[in-house]
Amino acid sequence: MLKVLWISGLIFLTGTMNAQEKYNLEYNYKTGETFRYQSSTDYDVVQEMNEQEIKMSGSSNSILKLIIESVSPEGNITFINSYEEMKSSLKSGIMDTTFEQKDIIGKRGKVIIDKFGKEISSEMIDTVKKEGGMGGTSVSFLNSVNLPKLPGYPVAIGDKWTNIKTDTTKLSEGAMIITYNIEYTLLQKEIKDGHECLNIAVVSKSEATGKTMQMGMEMFIEGTGESKGSEWFDPVLGILVAKESVMNQDLTTAITGQMNMSIPSTQVIKTSFKLIK
Fold first, then answer.
1. Residue 267: which domain range?
2. Which residues pair with 70 in a beta bridge?
3. What is the mean pLDDT of the chain?
4. DSSP state of 2
5. 40 assigned to some structural domain
6. Which is deepest, 8, 164, 174, 236, by most CB within 10 Å?
């Protein structure tokens, strides 16, 4: 009898230990709310040109304002996005400069996502004069709310899910297209910036292709990258609290026209995105 009770108790204890809490992750931003996120990027680039190594580094810091315009009965969220601040810096062997991207400040984009973060539509509300180079990158962020894709079904600690995402950035007379294959893993509960969050590990592999024109010459860009990082999600409020990542990227730029050359480069890009108010 004692043996039967001991075995029954062991089975009950094992079942209790294995029964993990499930989380049904959904975005729950509410109509009329305003959120501000601080974004920062630091990068180091090494290029090889004419058998010479060229090094450069830079950074970008901005504050992105998200206004929740509406939430549909199905949970689709409409965001109005705009930058309140944006400053960038670039340092190389021939320059050391800091500049503000004033053309983008206050310009609005509209993005609609479902309650799991899948983008339904995006558009620019205001016209931005400069869409090439850095300006094009800024506009692409206004057409996105930079939120991670949630699984769409209940998950427990240790569960994984995947997503494929494609970003298009306008360049001068062309575009850069990057496709990301992303794997998410729900790691643990922890406190982040005063919020009780779920820490989600993110591993992303990317492929980039692009084409543009500069000084009458065609430029073709291709490459691959891999990034690792974490995203912190508040499951009670249904909001993103922060995300951080480090990306290593290898790119090759082929130039044709007045001169023909191939320029390989490696990049290390560190980014952070966090709620400030």
1. 23-45+56-275
2. 78
3. 86
4. H
5. yes
6. 174
